[in-house]
Amino acid sequence: MFYALIAILSGISNVISRSVNFVLSEKLGVYQSTLFNYIFGLAGSILILFISGETSKLLASTSYDANWLAYTGGLVGVAVVSLQVFLSSKVSSFYLTLLLFVGQLFTGIILDFILSGKISIWQVVGGILVIIGLSYNLYIDRVEEIEVASH
Question: Which of 9, 54, 82, 140 sits a CA distance of 20 to 30 A from 1?
Answer without folding.
Answer: 54
